[in-house]
Design brief:
This protein has 471 residues and is α/β, with parallel strands linked by helices. The chain contains 16 helices and 21 strands. A seven-stranded mixed beta sheet has the order 15-16-17-14-13-18-19, sandwiched between helices. The protein has helices spanning 41-58, 63-79, 81-92, 96-102, 105-119, 148-162, 175-187, 202-211, 224-235, 259-271, 291-301, 323-338, 373-376, 392-400, 415-424, 456-461; strands spanning 2-4, 7-9, 12-14, 21-26, 31-37, 123-126, 129-135, 139-142, 166-169, 195-197, 217-221, 240-244, 250-253, 283-287, 342-345, 363-366, 383-389, 407-411, 429-432, 450-451, 464-470. The protein has two domains: 2-245 and 447-470, 3-Layer(aba) Sandwich (Aldehyde Dehydrogenase, Chain A, domain 1), CATH 3.40.605; 250-432, Aldehyde Dehydrogenase, Chain A, domain 2 (3-Layer(aba) Sandwich), CATH 3.40.309. It is globular. 40% of the residues lie in helices and 20% in strands. Keywords: Oxidoreductase.
């Protein structure tokens, strides 16, 4: 049984002022595996004060100093990769394929930011103007429970490269992952106050950070509803925002797609991370002329998405993160049936042979229209829908008929045709015959999927403000 009873403020592990104790669970067994003492408003204010003090010096550091710091962070994270992977599996239920494929991205983000800095021009001349890209102030970073390490590293890399100090508020249900990550940050020997980490509830610590007058920027990954609240909190002091929010991404199978490869890829996108991924392709758009083939291909591909113990290398889909999330997903599966959708695979309840753990049967609905709630609302679990279309124009229309716009996939044997469709799809990222973008692509959404972009230059400049000096 782990007890996590410290937060990280001003370069020190300190006992929080907050006294609330929250349990930590293993979603594969439903057992309590630890307890975390949560920060409160007093801790949040102390973390902001530490970051503000550190900003006065850190914002004036040279590129070389920040590059060295970023490389130290990369090395420190690399040393703890096995611990980070183990924590994510135990606390979150992530399967081996996910932790082995995604957790190593975290140290790479620091190295990529360091490389970007080498040639980045913070001072530029435009006519008679000197344009100075300056760190905009103390940033608050708020991250969810899925892919916690990657999201935190992603935002820290851009902020530190920019010369910005940070207060991180991770999810309270990812506290074991946060503990390992914090120890890695501490081992990198950053100046005190550059990174502060306070685990607490969103309606407590999060509200302080998103309304605090000394916070200039908020970087958030999470639900659209929380993003809306952050915008309201930030409006009073005109904070800069990067919000990466929910999604209901389409995987568009054009009528010339190679279904033998496209269907397994579309399912992999939808079931990624146990179905708990904001950029998942949860709507499979299939040509009506080949609908029977698509349905048959899904049936053939489903055995590869084995559900079970996340520590077993053969497992492709693990449990969802909590009882609350399990109940939410079950609600949507029943709702889909009530709406008249037909179950192709899966359905309510746990998979056969799994009486314990928050396991969901990977579910695919057919007979779905884009007006159904299971086609419009983010479920955040392994539940996909198949929606037919007549031609490319209708595919684009259905793809865009959503309040979200984070990521989409287009599958076709004709790359030029796929590009033409991709240019019409309203999403921050549109992938052609693949389900992951490379690290230099900007990442973020449009419509209710968010504001701003992360990764590479976009992630750096999210923490910078241009200032013009004219002569």
């Amino acid at each position: 049984m782990r007890t996590i009873d410290h937060v990280y403020i001003d370069g020190q592990f300190v006992i929080p002022h907050g006294t609330e104790i929250s349990p930590l669970y293993n979603p594969a067994t439903e057992e309590v595996i630890g307890r975390v003492r949560l920060a409160d408003e007093t801790d949040a204010h102390a973390a902001v004060a530490a970051a503000k003090r550190a900003f006065a010096t850190f914002s004036r550091t040279s590129k070389e100093e920040r590059i060295a710091l970023l490389h130290r962070l990369s090395a420190s994270f690399t040393e703890r990769l096995d611990d980070l992977k183990a924590a994510m599996t135990e606390e979150y239920g992530a399967v081996r394929g996910i932790v082995d494929g995604l957790i190593p991205l975290a140290p790479g983000m620091f190295d990529a930011a360091a490389k970007l800095l080498e040639d980045y021009e913070f001072t530029r001349t435009r006519g008679t103007n000197t344009i100075v890209m300056e760190p905009l102030g103390v940033a608050a970073v708020i991250t969810p429970w899925n892919l916690s390490t990657v999201f935190i590293a992603q935002k820290l890399a851009g902020a530190i490269a920019a010369g910005t100090t940070v207060v991180v508020k991770p999810s309270e249900i990812s506290a074991i992952q946060t503990q390992v990550l914090t120890e890695a940050i501490d081992a990198a020997d950053l100046p005190p106050g550059v990174v502060n980490i306070v685990t607490g509830r969103g309606n407590v610590v999060g509200n302080v950070l998103t309304s605090h007058p000394d916070i200039a920027k908020v970087g958030f990954t999470g639900s659209t509803a929380v993003g809306q609240q952050i915008m309201r909190n930030a409006a009073e002091t005109f904070k800069r925002l990067t919000l990466e929010l929910g999604g209901k991404g389409p995987s568009i199978l054009l009528d010339d797609a190679d279904l033998a490869s496209a269907v397994p890829a579309a399912l992999a996108s939808g079931f990624l991370n146990n179905g708990q991924t904001c950029f998942a392709g949860t709507r499979i758009l299939a040509p009506r002329s080949r609908l029977d083939e698509v349905v048959e291909a899904i049936g053939k591909a489903m055995p590869a998405f084995r559900v079970g113990d996340p520590t077993d290398p053969a497992t492709a889909v693990g449990p969802v993160v909590s009882q609350q999330q399990f109940d939410r997903v079950q609600h949507y599966i029943r709702l889909g049936q009530e709406e008249g959708a037909q179950l192709l695979t899966g359905g309510p309840g746990r998979p056969e042979g799994l009486a314990k753990g928050w396991y969901v049967r990977p579910t695919v609905f057919t007979g779905v229209t884009n007006e159904m709630r299971v086609a419009r609302e983010e479920i955040f679990g392994p539940v996909l829908v198949v929606i037919p279309f007549e031609d490319d124009d209708e595919a684009v229309s259905i793809a865009n008929d959503t309040p979200y716009g984070l990521q989409a996939q287009v599958f076709s044997s004709d790359t030029e045709r796929a590009r033409g469709v991709a240019r019409q799809v309203q999403a921050g990222t549109v992938l052609i015959n693949r389900i992951f973008a490379d690290d230099e692509a900007p990442f973020g959404g449009i419509k209710q999927s968010g504001i701003g972009r992360e990764h590479h230059t976009y992630g750096l400049e999210a923490y910078l403000e241009p200032r013009a000096i004219s002569e």
